[in-house]
Structure formats: structure tokens, C-alpha cells
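Researcher: Next entry in the queue.
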Amino acid sequence: MQAAIDEARQGLGEGGVPIGSVLVHEGRIIGRGHNRRVQKASAILHAEMDALENAGRRTADVYRRSVLYTTLSPCPMCSGAVLLYGVPKVVVGENRTFMGEEDLLRERGVEVEVLQDPTCIELMRQFIAARPELWNEDIGLPS
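Model: Structure for this entry, 143 residues:
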């Protein structure tokens, strides 16, 4: 989770939303990313999508033996990618700020572990207090 937190801090430092993610295969990080919607003027570069993109093209068996770590509960888009590629486990830093599609993931057989990590919670608390309009944009709410 520390690598995902480091990614979140990097995104914040770049002026983006402080959410980070890493994809781990057999104990080794193969993809890392952070929310880069602002930095890349992207509609889809949430942290999980960025980590998957940065992992590069992989065979299905690699995804099926990987774990995705993310500092915040994954949204419908990112959860869909987890399901599409068959990632069997997602470790979530926190879901107090935003409750993503954890129930859907569990219903589809994905193991979801939620840490309620104080660092992840505080990163989001401070960010939302400072940039509520950007947070609302990121999760699809009107500003």
C-alpha cells in the first residue's frame, strides 16, 4: 500500500487528485499509477486505470495472479477493468471518502480487503477541503 500512497502523493504534487494504485504480480510491482485526469486532460486516467496502462500488455494469466492496491475504493469504471481482466484481489486504502463498487466486485468473486488507512483518509480529507470542485468533477458530480 505504501507504493500506492507514494503514487497518490505524486499526483497531488502534480496538481491532480491524490489517488494512487499499483498492480502487483507474484510480489513484484508490474504497474504503478496515479489519477492523472487533470495532468493529461483525460476522461479515464483514474489511478487504477493508469496502473493497468503502465503495466503494459499482459496475458490473462498474469492478471489472474495479481493484486491491485488502490488508495481509494474503485469507481465503476475501475471496478469494470478489474472484472474484465480477472484480477482476483483488490486492497483498498480507504472507503470512507468514497464507496466504490466493492459489493459488485465481491459478488463477482473478487476478494476486497479494506484497510481504512489513516494516511489515505487524511490525503483525501485535505484534498476535498481544498479542491471540492475538482473532486466533484472526478467522481462525476455537478460542481
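Model: The first helix runs from residue 2 to 13.
Researcher: Noted, moving on.
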